[in-house]
Structures are given as structure tokens and as C-alpha cells.
Amino acid sequence: MIARRWSGCALLVCSLLFPASPAIAAGVVVGRSEIAFTITAMGAKFDGRFRKWNADVVLDPASPAKSRAQVDIDLASVDFASPDSEAEARGPLWFDTAKFPVARFSSTSVESRGGGRYDVIGRLSLKGVTRDCVVPITVTRASNGERIAEGSFALRRLDFRVGEGEWADTGTVAGDVVVRIRMVLAPQA
Amino acid sequence: MVANIERRYSAAAIALHWLTAALIVVNLALGLSMVPLAISPRKLHWYLWHKSIGATVFALTGIRLGWRAIRPPPPPVAMPAWQQRAAAMSHAAFYALMFAIPLSGWLYSSATGVQVVYLGVVPLPNLVPRDRALGDALRIVHVTLNSLMFALVCLHVAAALKHHFGDRDDALARMLPMLPLRRTRKEGSNR
Fold first, then answer.
1. In principle, which of A25, B53, B135, B143 could form an S-S bond with B27, CB 3.0–4.6 Å?
2. What is the tally of structural domains in chain A?
């Protein structure tokens, strides 16, 4: 019963956070943006990404203080090697999406590093664990006025209990997961 | 003695044949048993071995063809023309499959976004970008080619046994040094 209430909650949260097919979410052109990741297992790289996520991103080069980023990822939308491995990723040992459907990054500040580079500093909540997280990004401007923010960072999966039990051994699946973000920001009105 | 050496495959060709044969049989069995496994570290290890063995077969096949050019195989044992044609075709099909099957596996792995790392040490480049539909198609190609390989191995073994026990010729002995070569009356009179 509790489980059912939980999944009902998860469904509601998901439908609120991830409307059917948003073309633009607060300036982010979702269709051409990407949240991807690479895990390393016994030396081999496994690439994946998330199909559904939502982002509210404001990048103001003139005043980094007014800049912000909030990203919500529907973890069950993981797009990974095979349907089997996606099911495993959603399972209790990895994301446990039945209990923790959404990962959220919320910026607390954005610091300019010069040359279009920024540190987006914030908190990442994943699988019930919230930790400080810095996402270094580089912003370039396309000829059509769009800005493209790209960055990557190493996420220590065991900090968030992602990959428990038989998967906790980093000799099989490395502890560092590379998360890559590419956000296409529509021209400002 | 000299005649015996000429009638058999060279030692290197024999070694390459049996090594490849063992790797192919092991890899067919490994491939069939690893797919139904639930995802686990063990499954990842089995895939790693499967891919490494496949890459080894691919490399050994290149070496074999090179060696075959330097030291051509002995002339075929006496048999009807249709059997010689069938043997030549099946050998050609073996070479084609020994290249095509590892290649299709490598492409399939690439399409699923999983890099192949030889023996867990030497990373091979991904041949195609990650693409679910392409991966599904390549899985079918890989499985189909392996079904052909399985059928061809059965045919090959059956033909070898038929020649050895039925025709009582040297088709098997020339690839298996532990068997003595038989001198058929015809060949004996020729030499």
C-alpha cells in the first residue's frame, strides 16, 4: 500500500516535472540539448543518456549573480546499452527509481572564470543523498544567436549509493562516472 | 618422410587451425550462455571474454590467410570433383565468417554504446555512433552469421569424419598429425 502510494506520488511528480514533450524549457532547446554519461566497466566505456529531463537555465554573462540553473532528471528515462541494462539501472541497486524518481541539480551560485568559462556551483540530489557539486561549463555563441553551454564533471557514484551490493566493487564498474551536459540556450528575447 | 611432410598442412597452419577451432567452439558456447544471464559483474566479465576471443579469432584469421599465401595448403586428397568444390566453398565461407562475425560483434557493441576493450586492456575504437535501431539490426546480423557458422562447423566435422572413416583418405590426417597418413594404392603408385 505504501509502495503504491509512493509510485502514485512518483507518477504525479514526474508528470508535473516532465510535461509531454516540451520544445523549450525556460530558454533551453531540449531537442538539441543532452544530458549524457559514461561509465567505465573493466576498461570499457559504456555511453548512456537521459531521454527526459527539464532545465531552467539563465546565464547572464553581465552578471553571473543573476545566473542560475536547475535541472531535474527523470532517472527512469535512462537510455543505456540495452533494455536489460536500463532495467538494471532503474533497479534498487542503482538509481532505485521507484523510491527516487528524480535527480535534481540546483545552483547556488555561478562564478565566471573568464573566456566564456563558468563554474556552476550547487547541490545535487540523487537517490536520497544531497551533496555539493560544481559543474564547470564553457559557453559559446552560435551565429544564430543561440548559446551553447557544455561541460562535464566526474560524479563519484558511491557518494550517492549508486551501484550497491555486488556493484560496489569499483574494480568492475569504476567509481567515477563522467556526466556530460550540453545545453542549447535559445536567443534571449 | 619428405612425402609425408608435403602431404600434410604445415605445422603453423595446423596449429592455427586447431587454435581457431577451439576458440570458435568456446566462443559459440560462451555467447549462447552469457546472453540469458541476469546483468551482473559476472555477465560483464563473460562479455569481455567473448569479445576478446572474437577479436583473437579475427586476428588469427588474418595471420592464417597471410601464412596460406606464403605456404599454400597441400593438394587436396583424391575425391570427386563436386566434393572438392564443396570443400573449397566451405573453406572460403569459413574465412568470410571468421572475419565477418567478430566484425559484426564489434559493430553491434559499438552501436549499443559499449566500447570493446581487448582483454580489458587495449581499447578499440567504436565503429559507429550509438544507435538503438542499428544495434538491434546488428544483433540479428551477428546471431544469423553465428547460426551459419554453427551449421558450417557441423558440416566441416561431418565431412572430416566421413573422409576419415568412410572414404579412409587423408583429409583429416593431413590436419591432425597424431593420425598416420594412409597411402592409398593410387597415391602410392604415383609417388
1. B53
2. 1
